[in-house]
Amino acid sequence: MALLPILCYPDSRLHKVAKPVETVDARIKTLIADMLETMYDANGIGLAATQVDVHERLIVIDTSEQRDQPLVLINPELTWTSAGKHLNDEGCLSVPGIYDGVERFDAVKVTALDGDGRSRSVEADGLLAVCIQHEMDHLMGKVFVEYLSPLKRNRIKTKMLKQLKEANA
Ligand code: K1U
Ligand code: ZN
Q1: Model-level pTM?
Q2: Which of 85, 104, 132, 141 could make an S-S bridge to 15, C-beta 3.0–4.6 Å?
Q3: DSSP state of 151
């Protein structure tokens, strides 16, 4: 297994649209293991393949307290969304240290393949529903800061670029 580097906003590769996974083969299984290791190491509750510069429709999630219930969603598609939406505080491993409110559906249903290539459906509410929507946005090249005002987004961009400069100095 390996830790994968996570792209940081405003890296333009975060805006690529991911393509469907064609076959759940050994390469994809290794990618899943590496993404789970990377997500747990970074103390995240989710990670999309886009964030590790792989532009295929694959996400991993674990919102359990014990961090022992990994959820793998390959080629996820939303099949139902609740009528209600709420503002939830979100963070992102690609935008470290920034948390802000984003409006999301309260509950969703998703169909996807699991890590063995079997078809499954997931009904989610609470943090899991928020996380699924956040990760599916990544697969469409969308980062949560794009829901914020241009003023906030520009401040975040400036802060991230400053941090990057300092890290490379
Ligand atoms: O996609 C990512 O960058 C992972 C991200 C997922 C996420 C967190 C919170 C709301 C929506 C999506 C994170 O894991 S951010 C860091 C984190 O561990 C966290 C933040 C807020 C609540 C719980 C966990
Ligand atoms: Zn994110």
Answers
A1: 0.97
A2: 141
A3: H
